[in-house]
What we know:
By secondary structure, this protein is an all-alpha fold. Helix content is 78%, strand content 0%. Helix 2 (39-61) packs antiparallel against helix 3 (65-89) and helix 3 (65-89) runs antiparallel to helix 5. The longest helix has 26 residues, at 9-34. The protein is elongated.
Amino acid sequence: xxxxxxxxxxxxxxxxxxxxxxxxxxxxxxxxxxxxxxxxxxxxxxxxxxxxxxxxxxxxxxxxxxxxxxxxxxxxxxxxxxxxxxxxxxxxxxxxxxxxxxxxxxxxxxxxxxxxxxxxxxxxxxxxxxxxx
Length: 133
């Protein structure tokens, strides 16, 4: 099924290019302010980045639409936590993550909508567990 709020394909490249510029810029500002003296900002940043990387294989390769959607919620929360901690260290660093949070929040909505429109989609785990052929 097709989502009515579908994002135009041409938009993904510029949006992710911008976000992948803003994320390391934000991290650089934190590094410039505190180096690696505090673990929490870096733990949060790396966690949200790992969640970012995990979504695509879950959704596009494993076809685990529900779990990709749940993962996306965790990603949004970790971006929010990262942003909050970054704001306390360097205001600009935290503000640079707002577009990223906005995009991931929208992507989470799309992900859940796609799962709801395709409830019978069988992911790889279903196939590996010996579901019906």
